[in-house]
Amino acid sequence: MPELAAEIITSGTEILLGDIVDTNAVWIAQQLREAGVNLYYKTTVGDNEPRLRGVIELAMTRSDVAIITGGLGPTVDDVTRQAVANATRRPLVLHEGALATLKERFARFGVTMTENNIQQAMIPAGAILIENPVGTAPGFIVETERCAVIALPGVPREMKAMMTASVLPYLRARMGGGAVIRRRILRTFGIGESAIDARLGDLMRRSNPTVGLAAKTGQVDIRIAARADDPETAERMLDAIEAEVRAAVGSYIYSTDPEERYETMLARRMMQAGVTVALLETNTRGALAERLATALPDQTPLCKRVVAPEEAPAELSGALQLEELDSAAREALARRAAMWLRSESGATLGLALVGTAGAEEGVFGRIPGETWLALDDGERVHTVRIPFGGRDEFTHVRIGNQALIELRRWLDAHHG
Questions:
Q1: What is the 3-state secondary structure (H, E, C) of 142-179?
Q2: Mean pLDDT of 255-263
Q3: How high is the pLDDT of residue 369?
Q4: Are β-strands 253-255 and 180-189 bridged in parallel, bridged antiparallel, or unpaired?
Q5: How far is CA 229 from CA 39, 139, 203, 210, 225, in A?
Q6: What is the band of 67 on the pLDDT scale with cuts at 50, 70, 90?
Q7: What pLDDT does residue 320 have?
Q8: What are the φ and ψ backbone dihedral angles of 372, each rounded to 5 degrees?
Q9: pLDDT of 180 above 90
Q10: Distance of CA 386 to CAs 253, 330, 357, Å?
Q11: How far, rounded to the nearest angstrom, does the alpha carbon of residue 344 sit from its chain's CA centroid?
C-alpha cells in the first residue's frame, strides 16, 4: 500500500497577519486524514512570490504532495501560479479550455470580463487542469519527479468542491486505490503528560498505529491512530492499541468522547447514584460549583447547597481569615466546614475548599499558598492538602480538578 506524505501551504497575507482564520487548512487536513494521506507540515506565507516560491521548493524536497490554497485570482497580489511555475521550472501557458470556461462564466453572470482575468487561465506547462465547477479560477496539478504540487483557490466553497471532485480521487489513485486513517481520543484526568509518556514510551515510538499526547489544563488526551487498506482493519488495529494503552493507564481514562469534560462524566455518575453535594469555597469563590452546575445543565442540580464564605455561620466565617492561621488550623476549619455543610443541607456529601488567596500566590506564584479540601459523608471526614492557593483562574482550575478527583474516588469506593 503506497503511502503519501503531504503538506499544506496557505497563501495569503490576511491569513498570515491573523485578519482571517485559516479554516481551509483544517478542513483539508481532515480530508487527508480520512483518505489515508499522511500530513506532516502546514505553512502559511504572505502574498509574496519569492517567499511562496521558496516554501514550494522546500515542499518539493520533502513531500509527495503539496496542496496550496489561495492566490489564484486575477489581481496583482495573486502570485501562486507564478510561484508554482518558477518553483517547478515551468513556463506559464494559456489554457484555451480554461479561457473558454472563463468567458462562458462571465457571460452567464452578465459581466464584462476584464483583461486581468485572463491570467486565471494561465497554468504551468504540462500541468493537469482542475476544473472549478462553482467559481471562475481553475486549479492545477504539476507533477515533478518527487512531488505533486496542487494549487487550489482560497475561497472555501470552491476549494472544497475541487478537493472532493478532483483532488481526493487523484490522491487515492496515486496510492493504488486508497487507504483510510482512523483515530480515537482517550481522555485522561489526574495524571500528567510526563507520567503518561513514561508509561507509554514504547507504544509512542510505533509508526502504525501511532500514539500521541495532547496536554490541556489539568488533563491529557491520548490520541491513537491507525492506517490501513479498509476501515475494518483500521478499527481492529485501534482496538489492539487501545487495549495496550488501557493496560498501562486505564484507571485515568474517563472517556473516548473528544468533547466530554471530566465533570460531565462525574456528574452523570453522581446523578445515577443519587449523590448530591453541598459546597463552600473560599479562594476559588464558586468556580467548582459552576463546573458542576454546567456539567449536566438540563438535569436536577447536583449541588444541593452552595455557600459563600460570608454566608457561613459565625463560628466558621469569623475563622475564615486564613492568612492568619497555620496549616493545622486551616485543616481543622475545613473539616468543620464540611461537616456543617452536609448536616445543614441534607446533601450526601459536604465538600469544603478552604484556602489562601494572596495576590502573589498560585501554582506559578511567587509563593504557593495552601488549600485544604475536606469531604464529609456522615461516616468520616477525608482531608487533602493541596499545596497551592491563590486567586488566578489557572490555580482555581487545578484546585477544582483535585476536588473532582476526590469526588470520583469517593464514588468508586461507595458506588463502584
A1: EECCCCEEEEECCCHHHHHHHHHHHHHHHHHHHCCCCC
A2: 92
A3: 93
A4: antiparallel
A5: 17, 29, 22, 16, 14
A6: very high
A7: 64
A8: -110, 130
A9: no
A10: 22, 12, 13
A11: 42
pLDDT of residue 33: 83
In the prediction, which pLDDT does 34 show? Answer: 80
Does the structure show a pLDDT above 70 at 1?
Answer: no
Nearest to 314 by CA among 332, 336, 331: 336
What is the total residue count of the chain? 416
The per-type count for the chain, helices as H runs and strands as E runs, is 14, 17
- Could you read off the pLDDT of 293-334 as tens digits, one per residue? 999 887 778 889 998 888 888 778 766 667 778 899 999 999
- Distance between CA atoms of residues 310 and 297, nearest Å: 27
Kind and range of the H or E run holding 100: helix 96-109
HEC string for the chain? CCCCEEEEEEECHHHHCCCCCCHHHHHHHHHHHHHCCEEEEEEEECCCHHHHHHHHHHHHHHCCEEEEECCCCCCCCCCHHHHHHHHHCCCEEECHHHHHHHHHHHHHHCCCCCHHHHHHHEEECCCEEECCCCCCCCEEEEECCCCEEEEECCCHHHHHHHHHHHHHHHHHHHCCCCCEEEEEEEEEECCCHHHHHHHHHHHHCCCCCEEEEEEECCEEEEEEEEEECCHHHHHHHHHHHHHHHHHHHHHHEEECCCCCCHHHHHHHHHHHHCCCEEEEECCCCCHHHHHHHCCCCCCCCCEEEEECHHHCCHHHHCCCCHHHCCHHHHHHHHHHHHHHHHHHHCCCEEEEEEECCCCCECCCCCECCCEEEEEECCCCEEEEEECCCCCCHHHHHHHHHHHHHHHHHHHHHHHC
pLDDT of amino acid 178: 61
Cell 500521541, located at residue = 212
Taking residues 27-36, what's their average pLDDT? Answer: 88
Strand positions, DSSP E, 46-113: 65-69, 92-94
- Mean pLDDT across the chain, nearest whole number? 91
Amino acid 264: pLDDT? 94
Residue that the C-alpha cell 506559464 belongs to: 92
- pLDDT of 324 reads 77
pTM over 0.85: no
Round to whole Å and give the CA distance between 311 and 302. 20
